[in-house]
Amino acid sequence: MKKILYSFLLLSSATLFAQKNTATKFAVANDIVGTVDMFNNNNYKGSVQSSKAYKSATELPQNLKKFDYLADNGLVEYKLKSNQGVIDRMPVNELNAQFGLPADTPVLIDGYEFTNTKTLVYGDIINNAQVITSNGKKMVSVTTSRK
């Protein structure tokens, strides 16, 4: 009986980690994914030249259509100042490499599935990363919240 209960709890926790965090609002700058919270942080506020918010995936311009799966809460496009230094970034397939998973394995970020593992993300959004099992497959799950 304990094994059944333990298995159920393990499966439930994996399912919870795979759910979308609807509080996350994604942002894109220079074709790199971040979060609005990251750009509102004092570290990057001075780096922003301008921003444009889109309320839904249907409003996205052509250059942002590839990020439509992140626009459940809208999407913000930031333009950074030209004198801005390089902000740490990485393709999500590097997360797979860090955890010993195949490079083409999708990665979950706050429950949003990044199937194109060459997508670049800002390193500052990665708060916690762990391997979970979702739909019978092992994948990296990242949470962005620092709360």
UniProtKB/TrEMBL annotation:
It comes from the Bacteria. Keywords: Signal. The keyword Signal applies. Residues 1-18 form the signal peptide. This is Uncharacterized protein. It comes from Chryseobacterium gambrini.
